[in-house]
Each structure stands twice: as C-alpha cells, then as structure tokens.
Amino acid sequence: MKRQPTPGAATALALVLPVLAALTPLVVGCHRQAPPAAGDAASAAADASGNVAASRFTAEANAAVAGALPIADAADFEEARRGLVATKPDLAIRTAGGRALWRPRDYAFVDGEAPASVNPSLWRQAKLNGIHGLFQVADGIYQVRGYDLSNLSLIRGRSGWIVVDPLTAKETAAAALALARKHLGNEPIVAVIFTHSHIDHFGGIGAVLEDPTTDPARLRVVAPKGFIEEATSENVLAGVAMGRRASFMYGSGLARSERGHVDTGLGKGPATGSIDILEPTDLIDTTPQELELDGVRFQFQYAPASEAPAEMAFFLPDLKAYCGAEIVSHVLHNLYTLRGAKVRDALKWSGYIDEAIELFSTNLDVVFASHHWPTFGNERVVAYLKQQRDAYKYLHDQTLRLANDGLGPQEIAEELTMPSTLASVFANRDYYGTVRHNAKAVYQAYFGWFDGNPANLNPLPPEQSGMLYVEAMGGAEQVLRRAQEAYDRGEYRWTATLVDHLVFAAPDNEAAHELLARCYDQLGYQAESGPWRDVYLTGAYELRHGTQGAAMDPAAISQLLRHMPAERFFDAMAAHLIGPKADGKTLTLNFVFTDLGQTHVLTIENAVLHHHKRTVADPSATATVTLTRDFLVRLSTGQAGLREMIFSNDLAVEGSRLDVLSFFSLLDRPD
User: Fold this and answer.
1) Position 118 pLDDT exceeds 50
2) Contact, 369 vs 388, CB < 8 A?
3) Number of C-alpha atoms within 13 angstroms, CB side, residue 253?
C-alpha cells in the first residue's frame, strides 16, 4: 500500500518557494498599489508620496546638463517614429485576473520641457521610449515597440512570420501580436528566435503558442547554446536578494510622476504577467553560423558572456539588416547591473561589436535591436556601432590604466570620464548603466572586492561602525546638525554618507530618516540613469513609509519552472541550508522523480548539502521522497495545497518521515 505523506513533510517542501519565486528579477516587483501620481493639488514642498520639490542646487545641476547636451537634436526622434504603421494611444493590457499590466498613458506626463525634478537628458530618453506602436523597419521587417520593456520583432518569411524576442509576458506579447495581425495579416508563425537568456526576451512565448496560426509541432525555435540552462538558472541561487534589489532598480513601487518613476532608460519597465519558455530546436554556437528559416537567410553571431551569459545577434544579408540583440542599445548598458548579477566582460562585449563591424558593415543599411529604435543608413549605422564598441573598450582599458596607477574602485569611478567624442553621443549616455558603476565593475572583474587599502580588509559592519561614527561626531544631534548644513549647501552625497551612519546607529530616528529621504530625492532628481533615479527614490519612499517588500504571483512563473532541471531545485535548497543549524548533522535522502525518470541523492555533512543524480536510489538513505517535478512546481507556487499534499498520488514518503522533516527544517526562509 502506498504510504501517505505527512502534512509536515509536504509543507516543508514549500520552503523552496522563496528561491523559486525569485527565479528572475525582471518578473519580481512590488504589487501593492503604487502611491498616486503627484498632481496640481500637491504642495510645493512634497507630493503625495512625500517627495520634496527639487532644490535650487538640483535645478541648477539639471539646467547645466541641458546646456551641455544638444537636447533639441531631433535625429533620434525621427528614427524612433520612422516607419510607423499604427499605434494605440488607449492601450491597456491586463492580466486574466484584471490587474493592470501595461498602460502607456501612465507616462503621459512625460511631455514638454523637463521639470526641475528630472534630469533633462533622462527626460529626453523617456520621451523616446514613450513612442509606441507597430513600425516597419525595412522591407519584410517590423517591430512592436513600447508594449513592454523590450521589443517584439517580426520578419516575413516565404509562408509566415518569424518572431524575434516575444517580450516578458504572455499578455503583452498577445497584445503586440494582435496589433501586428490587424495591420499585417494572419499568416502563420513558423519560427521563433530567442536572442538571449533574459526573461524580457522569451517570457511571452505563451502568446505565440496560443496563437491560432501556430503549429507547435512544426515551430522552429532558434536560440544560443546554453539558453535553457541560463534562462532557468541565472538568478535562482541568489534570487531572493535579487528580487528585492530589482524592486529598487525598476522603481516598481513608485508613482509614475515627475517626482517618481519616469523611465528605466532601457524602456518603460518590465511587465509582470504570465511567463513561459520553450526548448530550442536549433542552437547557435559559432560565428558566422548560417541558417535558413522559411526562405530567409540568416547569418548568426554567437556572443556568449556579453550582455547575457547566452546571447547571439544575427545579420540578414538579403535585407541588409543587423539585429544587435542587446549587444547594442541606445544607452550605455550595464557591465554590472544594480539588481545584482555576475559582472559582464567589457572586453568581450566590445569585441563582439567590432566583429559585427568587420563581418557585416559593408552591406548594412539598418541596425535594429531588442530595445529602443533602429538606426538607419550605412554611414550612421557604422558610426553608431563604432561608438558603442569604443564605449565598452574605453571603460575597460582606462579602468585598468588607473588601477595600475594605484587608484582603487571608488577613486577610478570619480576620475574616469568618457572622451568628448563618446560622451556627446546620446546612445552612450548613462541612461541604464553608468560610467561610474561600470568602471567599478571592470575593477571587480579583475581585482575583486578588495581595493588594496588595509583599512578596508576587515572593516566593521554598518550598524557597529554607524554607532561609533555617531559617537565620534558628538552624538545624533551633532550629526543631524552637520548633515543639515551639508544638505543646505547642496552637498547631497556627503549628506547621505553622514546620515546613513546615523540611520544604522539609530534606526528609529525619524528626523534622520526624513533628512536622508530628502537627500535621496535630490540625488534621484539629478540622476541621468533611470535605475539610479529609481534606487534613490525607492530608498526615500521606504525611509518615509516603511519597507515595501518585493512580491509576485508565484503561479505566473510555473510554466518557466517546469523547464527547470531538477538539479536547480536542489542547488536552491543548498543555498538555503542554515549552516550553523546543520553543524554536526549527517543525513542522506533519496528524491525520486517519477515523471522525469530520475533519482537524486541528497546528503548533508560538514554543514553542506550535496546532490547527485544516480541510476538507483541509495540504499543507505533513511528516507525516499517520491514525487513529480510538476507536483513540486505546483506545491512551490501555491497551486497545490494541504489536501493535495495529503491525498495526491504525486508525492509519497517512504522511510523516516522525521528525517525528511529534519532536512526541511534546516532550510532558511528568507523574508
């Protein structure tokens, strides 16, 4: 007779939920009601969220930016509007449950001249990213832009459409396809291209699979080598922390307003809808790799370890068009992303752009990409590619030069500036990545966290050092007085440093919270980078209103999790083992997945969790958990509850249930 699982054992399996739910930062966002946008009724001092007005110093700093850049240059706007087929100003995309997912009108306030509370260069970028609709890029190439953080591209084949990067969520991708269908016809979707392993470029594949013209059995799916592995694992081990940080980076809890979230620089923001993934039928692993899809000739460029661990671009020789994926964009991209990720290789990144120039530039009329608008004309295209290439190479080379001169990462970030020929190019501006944090990323890639200063080898943690700093400066009142004086002089970076010590030393000091929040307001208003602005303003919001957290509907990623290898679940468990609690314990368990035909043996010794795939169960194990991966996904995402745990045929425990409970009790549940 089958042994029924104990509720405790089954419930314990749900301990993996925090990791699984944070599998990718782009789908993690705060779903609480955002504070209302600031309107005419808001006072001059503070808006509905508590954000104060731009100070005189902020207004002057932003005016200086406007005076230093050709803000009125219309060339990008002409290219962003070129080829417009149709737009839908009243677009409102909702989830099946009715939650508003995507509304361009939320950004209708981005109009006219930049207010004092927004860097005018970022304001210009926000205007460009607000241009949305269906566009013809070239003969047979179309894009739907402004329906998500990324673009959905369509290439006309002999018998149907080739879809490139079907957005973040099924809902936004379905709306984009509906717009294209309305104006381009109902030919079948015959192929899909995933340019890289970030979720805003594959998560909406469910809309393609549900399209009535799609034959899933005949659909060709092209992706770079390692796509599935990277797409399902990039953030699984550190996903909880990354999810929390992503809510800061994307300003997911901020009002869409002149004193709130304006733009990410890369686009408006990621959609948090239903996510899926699909196994590739064709893998790209060399350059140039030629492939014909529905009569269209492709020359693929394999570009791993650039903007994503698994990435590729492609050239369409008959159409004289290059899709740069996310290797090229109309921003200085991230070598290090503020949500957290492995540092990207600036030298390889630059090298791939140089390779594209060498291989394709003589026969190239247009460059389009996974974000932003295309660039047209051979002369303009080649200049754009060279400027993008040289931005990453300059960051790499000059960071190492300054490091070899003895400077540490913070000093390099302060010292390094782009040459005038690159700094004056809007496509190289700090809208997403920044020169300052990218320089630190290059330093980190070569030298790690230690800057060589012995004082920084083993510093005190923030709470302890904060208390000692405050004591050394004469107490909280003295720190506040000096910080206020610095704030009144417009020295916001120094103000933030001073008050940060006080907030760590006295977390209940409301005056310190408000002063630091006002300081973050000004730093956010001055930021050219969308993520920097959102990080500062989210910090200000939480200082005033408390931690907003980061949450999502776990069921939204259930389809993605069904493609995750079983090994990745156990990697997540290992990263959540409470080392001190496991000290001195030894344990061996079998996990048998009936739907996968796999057996995994888990062992704990030396406070470390190991797992190995085996052909047979370990006879020395004290318990065997038999289940399906599908049931583990449903359990982890809350789609299976207590009744299913007890009565499901998809889970059973044989042997010591106490050992199973003991195992799961050793796993942390991060907040």
Assistant:
1) yes
2) no
3) 28
Eight-class DSSP state of 509? -
Q: Are 142 and 182 in contact (CB under 8 A)?
A: no
Name which of 660, 472, 667, 668 is nearest 10 in CA terms.
660
Q: Are 276 and 203 in contact (CB under 8 A)?
A: yes
629 Cβ partners below 8 Å, 6+ apart?
A: 562, 566, 593, 595, 596
Query: If phi over 0 gives left and psi between -120 and 50 gives alpha, with beta otherwise, what is residue 339?
Result: alpha
Task: Name the pTM for this structure.
Answer: 0.92
* Distances from the Cα of 69 to the Cα of 119, 124, 125, 338, angstroms: 12, 11, 13, 26
Give dist(CA 344, CA 329) in Å, integer. Answer: 16
DSSP string, 335-348: SS-TT--PPP-HHH
CA distance 237 to 572: 5
Closest CA to 512 of 468, 478, 472: 478
CB 554 within 8 A of CB 636: yes
**pLDDT on residue 641:** 65
- Do 257 and 41 contact (CB within 8 A), yes or no? no
424 in Cβ contact with 116 (< 8 Å): no
Mean pLDDT of 266-286: 92
Q: Which pLDDT score is estimated for 554?
A: 64
Query: How far is the C-alpha of 77 from the C-alpha of 72, rounded, in Å?
Result: 10
Q: How far apart are the first and last CA of the chain?
A: 40
Please state at what angle helix 120-129 crosses helix 56-68, rounded to 10 degrees: 70
Name residues whose C-beta falls within 8 Å of residue 6's C-beta, 6 or more positions apart in sequence: 653, 657, 661
Distance, in Å, from the CA atom of 110 to the CA atom of 259, rounded to the nearest integer, reads 11
pLDDT, tens digit, 9 for 90 and up, residues 429-454 = 999 999 999 999 999 999 999 999 99
